[in-house]
Amino acid sequence: MTTIGRRLSVFALISGLSLSLAVSLPAAADPLKIIALQYRLFDHSGRQRGGVIAVGDPAPVYVGETVRLELVGSAIIGNVGREVPIESRFEVAAGKGAIEIVRTGGSWVDVAVRGGSGNGLAQVGFTVTGNYEMRGKNTFGRLTLEIQDNGSASAGADNGWDSSSNQSVRTLTETLYRSILNSPATGREAQIDFERIRSGGQQGALDVALALARDAEQQGFGRSVLRRGYEDEDIRRAGGLYQSLLRREQSIEEIWRLDRGFQNNVRVLHERGLVSLVDSIVGSEEFARAWGFER
Question: What percent of the chain has pLDDT over 70?
Fold first, then answer.
């Protein structure tokens, strides 16, 4: 075979291979149909703050904290509505100096709140980069953050705290830290938690307590690790929380003997963990009465 003939054969082989590959490649996936955009906000512990927030509605944040914003969309998949992450590019759109982007992912952005802005607002801009079918106005937008100084609420907010003073809030903050996390309430996070309780009342205290309980479980301060003979350890752990958080003056033995609800909560601690127990205690009417919250 001549040199020209060999070249023609090679070209024919390459052309045939290319045609074969072109035929075998799957068709591009249809874009996912998105009918609405929302976002979620998570605090430093990974706890979601509030529910799903409509794009355009502001979300409260506190000076000194870092939060995660996750952009999500309502999609139609198989004629069923589902929530899906929306891949996007993020940037500070308003309030430079008040907020700073510290980390980004496909559909989320971590934002550090450095200080207040002139009107108390800052905005994170987003541009959708994923393959979606959506209206043009939904392909970009802004997520608005309402900055509150160290967690303090706006004037006139009804936090359910009855005649609160800084000392009362400080005492409760210290009690939550020591009884749940076995740690003093010091540092920036404790200051943010202090302000969150002062502005949020019992709900603020519950948010702080649940975050501390998650940290405590990770550090091994939760329920007993024993499968058998765990009762004594869990009774002491739950009893200590009753005495400090509910301000019970009885001994742990008396609480166990007289309070059937406490016996149930000991089982809650062992079967479901410290977070569930703390949720039950701090969210209770007895806690509200013990710490002077209005119901």
Answer: 78
